[in-house]
Design a protein that fits this description.
Blueprint: E1 2-11, E2 15-25, E3 30-34, H1 41-48, E4 56-61, E5 64-65, H2 70-74, E6 77-80, H3 92-102, H4 107-120, H5 136-148, E7 154-158, H6 166-181, E8 185-189, H7 193-199, E9 202-207, E10 210-215, H8 217-224, H9 229-236
Parallel strand pairs: 3-8, 3-9, 6-7, 7-8
Antiparallel strand pairs: 1-2, 1-4, 4-5, 9-10
Helix pairs in contact: 3-5
Bound molecules: adenosine-5'-triphosphate.
Residues 11, 13, 15, 17, 35, 37-43 line the site of adenosine-5'-triphosphate.
Organism: Kosmotoga pacifica
GO molecular function: ATP binding; ATP hydrolysis activity
Domain ABC transporter: 2-233
Length: 252
């Protein structure tokens, strides 16, 4: 289980990115985290994965407090950031080996596991090449393969579908379903309503750092009334009547 208890993050400069957020995601679930730009999704994800510390509140992953026992908790997590984090100077295979060493994956299972993932995401051909020759999508795939290579129980994926080609996106969605169906957790953020509707068991909608809704898409639609998920989402996260001064733009 992922458990957030009244989690708040205030960045330097007093930006309250996440405000008293409480949430539980259970084993067996694909949980989609939705919200407009700047809503607090990445900040929440970084607190779940222990990349940043909450200003207040507590995060537990499978019963382990990530602040008290970060190494133990991080072993259970496969994290893919919104921008692929890979070591550019290494070859693809060297980077994967580095991650497998960090997570102490036994040597006898490495080849089989990596081969399967490389085949699934069609990256085998580039694995001997330096990462700095990869396209953005290839780096994203490498980062995904690295995150999944140590067989983590909890997948935390920040915008994982954007940037993947259609076939890889399809395969990843299938893998997400299989992973959850095997009693694990998939927590991911997305802007794509169609994906949320198709694959999530539950969704959470965050707006201006606050959780506005948690439940199934059907429950959300029932609560909000008529409309597509996209229309209802826009209604919940509308910015209101903020007046913006565009006078500095040159209209001539
Ligand atoms: N390192 C930082 N320092 C200061 N403010 C930050 C920092 N990172 C994010 N913020 C601010 O915190 C708020 C939430 O940002 P966050 O990146 O969590 O949003 P998001 O929902 O992931 O957005 P997007 O969909 O655009 O990726 C925004 O107001 C952002 O400007």
């Amino acid at each position: 289980m992922i458990k957030l208890n009244k989690v708040t993050k205030v960045y330097a400069g007093e930006v309250k990115a996440v405000n008293h957020l409480s949430l539980e995601v259970k084993a067996g679930e694909i949980f989609g985290f939705l919200g407009p730009n700047g809503a607090g999704k990445t900040t929440t994800i970084k607190m779940i994965t222990g990349v940043i510390k909450p200003t207040e509140g507590k995060v537990e992953v499978c019963g382990i407090d990530i602040q008290k026992e970060p190494v133990k908790a991080k072993r259970l997590i496969g994290y893919v950031a919104d921008e692929p984090i890979v070591m550019e100077k290494l070859k693809g295979i060297e980077y994967l080996n580095f991650i497998l060493n960090v997570f102490q994956v036994p040597k006898d299972v490495r080849a089989e596991r990596i081969e399967g993932l490389l085949k699934a995401f069609k990256l085998s051909h580039a694995i001997m090449d330096p990462v700095n020759t990869y396209s953005h999508g290839m780096k994203q795939k490498l980062s995904l393969i690295a995150a999944l290579s140590h067989n983590p129980k909890v997948w935390v994926l920040d915008e994982p579908i954007v940037g993947l080609d259609p076939e890889s996106a399809f395969i990843l969605k299938k893998m997400m379903r299989n992973h959850a169906d095997s009693g694990n957790i998939v927590f991911f953020s997305t802007h794509i309503m169609e994906i949320a509707e198709k694959i999530c068991d539950r969704i959470g909608i965050i707006h201006k750092g606050q959780l506005r809704f948690v439940g199934t898409v059907e429950e959300f639609k029932k609560l909000q009334g008529e409309g597509t998920l996209e229309e209802l989402f826009l209604e919940v996260t509308r910015s209101g009547t903020e007046k913006i001064d565009f006078s500095y733009l040159d209209n001539s």
